[in-house]
Amino acid sequence: MNVQADNNDEIKPRRRFLKGAGVLAAAAVLVPQARAESGKVLKVNLNMPNAMLEGSAQGFPAQGLEPTHQQSVDFLRAANNVGKRSMALGHHPFGAVLVGPDQRTILLTQGNQGSVLHAEATLARMAAGNYTPEFLWGCTLYTSVEPCCMCAGTIYWANIGRVVYGMTEEQLLELTGDNKENPTMSIPSRYVFAHGQKAVKVLGPVPEIMTEIVDLQRQFWNRN
């Protein structure tokens, strides 16, 4: 079943219990209700194909489909919207979205919750507890800001096969400076992944969405 977005600008979370590979996974599905810049309405599949959930991902490459540029922009915008929600709840403005091998199905969304509960690391741990490593290798984690070394390591061990980010950690450091709330580390995620034994794919930054992400970060860090 596909859920087609309405024409308003809200993004509403929905939960759906998905059974596969012997686990019962509670997937927080973010339903985008705003139109993409391309004019096409985003769709979220609430009922995932059994092949995907069984970890075999039949019909998909081992690391899932490569995202189109527009898909990257759309899912990064969704991640940034999760960051806005996180900020509204009193947390830092970071958000992450996990997308299935079809590059259409949003499986999980997560905002920042604390210094050791970053959006990407928390999402990766949740994903590892609900899906098989084989299935996650075909998934993509979209994050508004490049993962720090803690998050990159957690993504690596969760066996998520691809990461797409909007702005670099170096750019974040320019905004946060010496802010004690976020002593940003200058360690690129590609450096972390390159020193592992698995070829995690990394895409980013993405210029078309960067302004929106930088604006949100600047809005938060300029007031703190």
Automatic annotation (TrEMBL):
Annotated CMP/dCMP-type deaminase domain ranges read 70-179
Per the record's keyword annotation, is Signal included, yes or no? Answer: yes
Which GO terms fall under molecular function for this chain's record? Answer: guanosine deaminase activity
Question: Source organism's superkingdom?
Answer: Bacteria
> Which Pfam families has this protein been placed in?
dCMP_cyt_deam_1
Which GO biological-process labels does this protein carry? Answer: purine nucleoside catabolic process
Q: What is its EC number?
A: 3.5.4.-
Sorted alphabetically, which InterPro entries does this protein's record hold?
Answer: CMP_dCMP_dom, Cytidine_deaminase-like, TAT_signal, TAT_signal_bac_arc
Q: Which UniProt keywords apply?
A: Hydrolase, Signal
Name under which the protein is recorded: tRNA-specific adenosine deaminase
**The organism of origin for this protein:** Yokenella regensburgei
